[in-house]
Amino acid sequence: MQTINRRFYTLKFYLKRLHSLNYSTSNAPPDNHVFHKNSLEDIVLERQLQATRSIVVQVSSQKSFPELYHYCSTYGRIMGAHHYCVPHEDNRHYILLEYENSEEAAVAINCSAYNDEMTGVPVRSPFLWFRAASKKPLKREIELSKVPSLCTVDGNLCIEQAELNSLLRDATNMDEQLSVLYQNTKLNDLGVRLRFLAAFQVQQAMYGMFPLANAIPFGSSVNGFGKMGCDLDLILRFDQECKPKENQTREESRLVFHTKENLINGRSQTQRQMESIGDMLQLFLPGVCHVRRILQARVPIIKYHHEHLNLEIDLSMSNLSGFYMSELLYMFGEFDERVRPLTFCIRRWANACGLTNPSPGRWITNFSLTCLVIFFLQQTRQPVLPSINTLFKSAIPSDIRITEDNVNCTFARDFQAIGFKSRNKSKISELLLQFFEYYSQFNFHNKAISLNEGRALEKPDHSAMYIVNPLEQALNVSKNVSLEECERLRIEVRNAGWILESEVDQNHEHDNEEQWGLLSLFKTPENAILKPNAFFKPRILEVSDLFDKTEESSNGKSKDFDTTLSVPEVKNKEVKQHRQNTKKSVGNDLKQIRLSTSANTSSGSNKTMQLMSPTKSIRGGS
After folding, report:
1. What pLDDT is attached to residue 469?
2. To pair with 510 at 20 to 30 A between CA atoms, which of 80, 110, 158, 604?
3. Does the keyword Transferase apply (predicted)?
């Protein structure tokens, strides 16, 4: 028990702090008119404490819960239980149990047995399985224990598209549709719990050698913009910046730990450390599989899959700015309750019309779309959101954050100190239409988007789309977006604006089978008003057409080139004649090049033979 108490000495101070804030973990939406909101750091800390009180147990089915509850109650008081499934050949069932405190959860883990039938290394972990008992408890004993009902059943299942469409169709207006979409697709409480438990597993595995190790979730899992099934981003730190008062006495101690000095640069050291951590994850941690190390990226990461959580995880060690970016997005979502539902709708629309893609490439990302939404809400006649510079000016010394890469992440965290309150009373459906109208006229060719200034700036380079990185302002968030994809965005927002013009503020009676409101927006029409290729004309001449269709191979036989691209017909006689002349002249030039190349090759080989002949005679004479 002494080891357990030491394990959580860094958390006791924060627990007192959270109780003083009267923090509640309920799912009630925040009041937009109340400024005493908790910071993301407080919420992350409470979720980390929640993970220390939890275990995940694999069971044969949901019906095993009464027996599991009866057995695990012997270790402590169970505050809640959540059931979920992981798709497999046959669905695997799991139940997350939350105890009253972390000590009771630790006792349950310490009393668990190791699997002697497997040859793997025994590992202490919050992920367990419930094996059959040699002597089953009597039904009467289970009934007397007053088993409560499960808080969640199949809690990690995403809503089916048909069911979501039915809910959207039954809504009375577009504002209700936007609320239904957000409430049914956002990351739920169980999803957040499982992600913090995955972080706790990594942190617990490191604790023996690194007592200050801290695995912190960031990104969509914590900023309020995450949807069901989203990936987990983790940052692993070995030196906690925030130290409790109980630990400050160590700085006055005359006994100091020996520390191994790093003699190489920081990036190389991080890569070597992550390589070792990747080996540890792959070899020892239960549930971790498909480990991939991407160490040459700008931010080195380890990607892996957790089979007990059905979760994709990205682990980094040098991305503190990513956490502070999550903190910034969280604050924007808390400023106004319309921000997140609007963002969810824009992302859903972009996915429906093919603007976003799960694979990295030339497409716009969800993060860039979120930046577009925030920037638009800064531009409304009565701004819905403040600029980042407003947050920077309201910062106090305790808000100063400078990363190890010298990235300034300083901005005010206290909503009351910022004191921003929007006077914009527009409904979400009206803001949605205004979003499409705004970007259908935005000058992406010459202007850059700056959330820091809250206004458009002159574009510093020739990128198709330029969104200034809010924290690293020398970088372009949307540098990957191609010119064609940027043009497609303009066309699609114009189409969406035309579709919504007839939908806003209409409460007419509609048939249950009718596609209206968001359903008409998410449905890709066959006869689109503007096609994405409307501004891209076909080439008059294909380069492949300049070459002969056949080429003599090395064995003397001719082989055909793959000519799947058809040359467009040209009605203009002058253009047609010019194309034929160009093809003929280029063909003659190619033949001359081939002849000259073959002649030079043959003459070169003759000279080589002449030079080699004396050498052979000398070698023969010797």
Report:
1. 96
2. 158
3. yes
Who contacts 8 (Cβ-Cβ below 8 Å, separation ≥6)? Answer: 52, 102
Cβ atoms within 10 A of the Cβ of 378, count? Answer: 21
Q: Which residue has the tokens 């009375």?
A: 172
What is the per-residue pLDDT for 396? 92
What tokens were used for 52? 């220390």
Which of 181-190, 253-262, 325-334, 610-619 is the least confident region? Answer: 610-619
**Does the domain spanning 178-183+336-385+422-507+515-522 belong to CATH 3.30.420.40?**
no
Confidence label for 544 from pLDDT (cuts 50, 70 and 90): low
Q: How many Å apart are CA 422 and CA 558, to the nearest integer?
A: 73
Tell me the helices (H) and strands (E) count for the chain, helix number first. 19, 13
| Closest C-alpha to 415, from 112, 22, 31 | 31
Total number of residues shown for the chain: 622
Confidence of residue 511 (pLDDT cuts 50, 70, 90): low
Q: Is the pTM of this model over 0.85?
A: no
Max intra-chain CA distance, the chain: 107
Question: Is residue 122 within 8 Å of 198, Cβ to Cβ?
Answer: no
The strand pair at 232-237 and 288-294 is best described as: unpaired
Token pair in block for residue 166:
């039915």
CA distance 604 to 3: 80
Domain 8-19+38-135+142-157 CATH superfamily: RRM (RNA recognition motif) domain (3.30.70.330)
Whether the pLDDT of residue 330 is over 80: the answer is: yes
Cβ contacts of 170 within 8 Å, gap of 6 or more: 512
| Token couple for 485 | 């994809």
CA 487 to chain centre: 25
Tell me how far apart the alpha carbons of residues 332 and 441 are, in angstroms, rounded to a whole number. 25
Percent of the chain with pLDDT over 70: 75
413: pLDDT strictly greater than 60: yes
Neighbours of 382 (CB within 10 A): 9
- What's at 176, amino acid-wise? E
What superfamily in CATH does domain 185-241+266-321 come from? Answer: Beta Polymerase, domain 2 (3.30.460.10)
